[in-house]
């Protein structure tokens, strides 16, 4: 990511890890005392784009919430006017204590952003809510803190992942979608200030914090969830999910016998986009076209056939694009024309799609 990192350590932090380790890791001088460089508490805040306090102990949280400035960290906090991200970490009983909760509420009301803590085994040997958030979640929170909030006020519904169309309790028709493209869209829209509802088929991904997350295993469940979330006044619906096109006509309540099945009769599933796009007052609809080959005409036909406002074409046979990969290459088609991207991360593709949406909306 290329950020320049300056580390400050409290006395407690130095009990766990040496300043030298963090100096080497950050390639920068580490600040351990208010008096090591008497003006650092003014110079550091002036240079920083974001202040990240990870892990934030109950003691540090209490000091920040009450304006106590008795070490380099708490003093820099008072002199800093940019975005602050805190990642609390402590024993679960300490975290639940009303005093800690009150202090956190106060910090959040002042605009501080909190990430975690997570649930799980704690350093003290107990289990509960108090683990430091995963590093990737802290990095995501920092990126969110630094993102422009140009989607503030927008309500966006995003679908992701595959659907499963069951023929019996253990077998289903599905596809290779991992959910990565849809999860990237939900995360970037949230970073940019949108209110996001993410509706997902079964995936191995962790939903981004701060979005409404709904699971929908079958196309019927996804349809109902999309209807319910869109009815809440959604401005945009982004259908990145690979909704199955067929479902078995019959669903057995028990596991089918091997010898009892020679063919599987299928029905078409409900077309979610076509249904929502027929509403009188409807969201702006962005669909995806997953094609095997570079036939853009098929995507254009899907856009007009389903009455979408924008379609994102991806050739799922291309190397490192489409299903399961962290990268994608797309062509975006809409009423004002088209734009093609290079191969890039799904987060970057999500940014470009949302930029295009905002350009058309405004
Ligand atoms: O999840 P990943 O592994 O990251 O992969 C990403 C992706 C390849 C799944 C994604 O980029 C993508 O292309 N998603 C759409 C897949 C798809 O279903 O394409 P389609 O051409 O079959 O459908 C066209 C559009 O109609 C899609 O927006 C789809 O969500 C929608 N649809 C499809 C069927 C149906 N019954 N109802 C629908 O609304």
Task: Report the top-level CATH class of the largest domain.
Answer: Alpha Beta
What is the helical fraction, as a range of percent? 25-40%
Number of strand elements = 19
The multimeric state of the shown protein is: single chain
Question: How would you describe this structure in keywords?
Answer:
binds ligand PMT; 362 residues; Rossmann fold; eight-stranded mixed β-sheet
Structure, briefly:
The chain has helices at residues 11-16, 19-26, 40-47, 58-65, 72-79, 92-96, 98-109, 135-146, 180-191, 219-230, 272-277, 296-305, 346-361, and strands at residues 51-56, 84-88, 113-114, 118-121, 127-131, 155-160, 165-168, 171-173, 195-200, 212-215, 236-239, 246-248, 266-268, 284-291, 310-315, 327-328, 331-334, 337-340, 344-345. It is α/β, with parallel strands linked by helices.
Description:
- This protein has 362 residues and is of the alpha/beta class.
- It has 2 domains: 13-146, Flavin prenyltransferase-like (Rossmann fold, 3-Layer(aba) Sandwich), CATH 3.40.50; 155-360, CoaB-like (Rossmann fold).
- 34% of the residues lie in helices and 22% in strands.
- The protein has 13 helices and 19 strands.
- The strands form 6 sheets. Strands 10-9-6-11-14-15-17-18 form an 8-stranded mixed sheet, with helices on both faces. It has a 3-stranded parallel sheet with strand order 1-2-3, with helices on both faces.
- Strand 4 and strand 5 (127-131) form a beta hairpin.
- Helix 4 packs across helix 7.
- The longest helix is centred in the last third of the chain and has 16 residues, at 346-361.
- The protein is elongated.
């Amino acid at each position: 990511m290329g950020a320049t990192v300056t580390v400050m350590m409290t006395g407690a932090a130095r009990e766990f890890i040496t300043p030298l380790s963090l100096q080497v890791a950050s390639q920068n001088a580490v600040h351990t005392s208010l008096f090591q460089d008497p003006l650092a508490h003014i110079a550091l805040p002036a240079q920083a784009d974001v202040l990240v306090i990870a892990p934030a102990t109950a003691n540090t949280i209490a000091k920040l919430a009450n304006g106590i400035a008795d070490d380099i960290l708490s003093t820099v906090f008072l002199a800093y006017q940019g975005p602050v991200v805190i990642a609390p970490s402590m024993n679960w009983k300490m975290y639940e204590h009303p005093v800690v909760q009150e202090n956190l509420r106060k910090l959040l009301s002042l605009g501080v952003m909190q990430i975690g803590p997570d649930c799980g085994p704690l350093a003290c040997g107990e289990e509960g809510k108090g683990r430091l958030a995963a590093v990737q979640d802290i990095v995501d929170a920092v990126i969110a803190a630094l993102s422009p909030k140009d989607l503030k006020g927008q309500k966006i519904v995003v679908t992701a992942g595959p659907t499963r169309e069951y023929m019996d309790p253990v077998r289903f028709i599905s596809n290779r979608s991992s959910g990565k493209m849809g999860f990237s869209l939900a995360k970037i829209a949230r970073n940019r200030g949108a209110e996001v509802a993410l509706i997902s088929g079964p995936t191995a991904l962790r939903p981004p914090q701060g979005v409404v997350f709904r699971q929908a295993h079958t196309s019927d469940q996804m349809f109902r969830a999309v209807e319910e979330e869109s009815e809440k006044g959604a401005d945009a619906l982004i259908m990145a999910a690979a909704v199955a096109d067929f479902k078995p006509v019959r669903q057995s309540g028990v596991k089918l016998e091997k010898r009892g099945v020679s063919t599987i009769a299928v029905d078409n599933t409900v077309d979610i986009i076509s249904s929502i796009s027929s509403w009188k007052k409807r969201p702006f609809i962005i669909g995806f076209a997953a094609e095997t080959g570079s036939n853009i005409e098929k995507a254009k036909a899907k856009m007009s056939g389903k009455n979408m406002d924008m379609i994102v074409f991806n050739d799922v046979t291309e190397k490192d694009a489409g299903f399961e990969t962290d990268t994608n290459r797309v062509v975006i088609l809409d009423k004002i024309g088209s734009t093609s991207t290079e191969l890039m991360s799904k987060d970057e593709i999500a940014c470009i799609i949302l930029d295009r949406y905002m350009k058309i909306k405004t």
